[in-house]
Specification:
Chains A, B: This is RNA methyltransferase. Two copies of one chain form a homodimer. Chain A is α/β, with parallel strands linked by helices and 244 residues long. Helices cover 32% and strands 23% of the residues of chain A. In chain A, the strands form two sheets. Chain A has a six-stranded parallel sheet. A four-stranded mixed sheet of chain A has the order 1-4-2-3. Chains A and B meet through helix 6 and helix 10 of A and helix 6 and helix 10 of B.
Chain lengths: 244, 244
Amino acid sequence: MISKNQLKLLRALGQKKQRKAHGLFLVEGEKNVLELVETSLKVKQVFATSDFLAKHASELRAYECIEATLDELTKASSLVSNNAAVAVVEIPQTDAPEPKGMMIALDGVSDPGNLGTIIRIADWYGIKHIVASTDCADPYNPKTIRATMGSFGRVQVTLLDLPRYLNEAKIPVYGAFLEGKSVHTTNFSQQGILLMGSESHGVRAEAEHYVTDKITIPAFGGAESLNVAMATGIIMDNYRRQHS
Amino acid sequence: MISKNQLKLLRALGQKKQRKAHGLFLVEGEKNVLELVETSLKVKQVFATSDFLAKHASELRAYECIEATLDELTKASSLVSNNAAVAVVEIPQTDAPEPKGMMIALDGVSDPGNLGTIIRIADWYGIKHIVASTDCADPYNPKTIRATMGSFGRVQVTLLDLPRYLNEAKIPVYGAFLEGKSVHTTNFSQQGILLMGSESHGVRAEAEHYVTDKITIPAFGGAESLNVAMATGIIMDNYRRQHS
């Protein structure tokens, strides 16, 4: 059973301010909760149905598990109905990653669903690090975590002073613009940072200043733009066909 | 002002059964409504704020326009707050497209947001026709239309007996599977059908039967799958780098 205080905490963690105050975030959904086992993240508690706990007893043996009904879990979650499992997890302390290998940088991408989808696509293409301007969506927003479809444990997202980070990086910065060199003919270097802007504002001037190569996804029809997560996926695919 | 009967109709058109009964669908949002001008779709009425109507008087001159407050429009819409314009549009009668050029076929893609995103990406890559199994999302669902970001008028989606269509097509059928030939090394023919299945079921056996080439997007990291719209975009980009 979920106690009143536990329910209060679970609901509070839907808010960024509360996540920061408690140093905790929520991982919702069966697949995401099971992914935790593969990570080094510190799990405080797992709330789940008796069915889920019985089925995954061995994977979850290291965690404090609290049995709850589907109804209780649905009430505790702001997100999904029929949510069989929710975990409360410590927000890890991470340092800004050293600029090396291939990375993704996000400038003002404020939609948590887009951020989560970008984390998922980064994981598909084996990108370990995303750096993001401080006004990007919170990587620990439950909507972000859900959209990662389990990839949140394999990709580190660091919010930081993006222009400064790009300035100090010694590797190429590929900026995605509506006008740039086609990704079909770009020679990507082995190491680099792919810089994506938001759909509404694009890459802003402060970050654009450090772009070494402007690139674009060639268009063949009438659509004016692509969703930022879609564009990230297509560009990463073009990079990976050159550097696997 | 929106009359009671008009409000009743607007709300009814959120439901598939009612859209079918009336032969009408909703186009919501400023950008989407303005896109109508570029299409041959028959617009019954445009409900919009006085600001919107004044600003776009010349584009909208051929339509019956009804002024409404933002509050009224928000009440009439199931989707968006701050919706400055909604149009009621006739569902066009379309025949199944002849299998030629490059096309997209969808098998059991039931999420309207995914369908709308696929319409948008089809439009980006200049694909005019999508054929879809009858259990796919309704192309006239307001959520589908919204996700197209204005591309709904340039891409025709036809729900039909998909296995039969694929059987009768005389062009290659490229089926997306988790195991297949890498799209990075596939030689795409000029004409073909890209067949995508749903995230939960993949391409089903009835449609798989007619696949001539199994293809896959190579993975480099830990994610198990990609969203169907994302995968469609990445594969279309690989096709277009060979045939522009």
